Amino acid sequence: MKALVYERYAPDDDYAKILQIKEVPDPVPKANEVVFRVKVAGLNHDDIWGMRGKPLQIPLPHISGSDAAGEVTAVGDDVTGIKVGDRVVSHGNLSCRVCMSCTSGREFDCKNRKVWGFQTGPLWGGYCQYTHLPEVNVAKIPDNVSYEEAAAASMTMMTAWHMLVGRAKIRPGQTVLVMGGGSGMGIFGIQIAKLYGCDVIATASANKLEECRKIGADFAVDHRKEDWHKEVFAISKEIAKDKSTAPGIDVIFEHIGGSHWNKELTLLKYGATLVTTGATTGYEANTDLRHIFFKGTNVLGSTLGTKYELEDGLYWMSKGKIKSIIDSIYPLEEAVQAHTKMLKGNLFGKILMRPD
């Protein structure tokens, strides 16, 4: 079968030097696995980390791709819930399923957890014509959700759902600040918060503010302005007048990191929550601890999510309450252009690739 393969790293982000279309053996399912023909797969930032060989060196030769959707073509002898012809999407959190974390519903905390298509291999990911996963790591796609929509939602929607619903436990009427609302994560963060009846303030670069409003944000603020946080607080004061509550933010959806951290903390109400899953502007953040201990702030870490959370999100997609935003679709042969576009960040929504 055809696959997008690299056999060495590109720490300088010169993807043209390493990415190749190659013929690799077709997968044969183990007893607990399904094989599916990949219709479309979505790009994630972990693709870039993998090609750089940092923050960790992943197996080589490598096939990336953590979000893939397609049609099942073969199943292993022990597979009972999936059949040939089913439409499925990957649940990329591979865990042992038997440790205390897994059996208590916290598979994302499994010590043996790996992100499929990032840490797996050699030659095991979604950027190929056929791929394989354990039955427990695929979810059926509802009839009225397309392959493209499912692939664009797989990791980012699940992670956003886990952040807001699983970890922050958002409630109707709260004021939620979605940082980076124009990103793949932020797009779903906005929609999930609105699904739960929250007032949503999104931040984004100036050219993405209107798009954030179109998908549900009540307000949108340019976080590249030096005093963006003051504008957010002023908005929260107006929201508070209508609710007769204190100004400020109840929940901050955070995946940006270093450069905005302390400004975010100043916006939180007493007893409020900041939930974080990333650090695209840097891992190190100086923290003014007064905003945490004095205000009783909840700072929650979050990563990926459960298959159940993925299926919850897909259900609401099937009801038209959440939608994927797709920026562009490339053939596998144009993977260099696709990844370069993602690296530069001039997009709104997910970039997808088709292997055929």
UniProtKB/TrEMBL annotation:
GO terms for molecular function: oxidoreductase activity. Residues 17-353 form the Enoyl reductase (ER) domain. Keywords: NADP. It comes from the Archaea. It holds the Pfam family ADH_zinc_N. SMART domains: PKS_ER. InterPro entries: ADH-like_C (IPR013149), ADH-like_N (IPR013154), ER (IPR020843), GroES-like_sf (IPR011032), NAD(P)-bd_dom_sf (IPR036291), Zinc-ADH_QOR/CCCR (IPR051603). CDD domains: Zn_ADH_like1 (cd08266). This is Alcohol dehydrogenase zinc-binding domain protein.
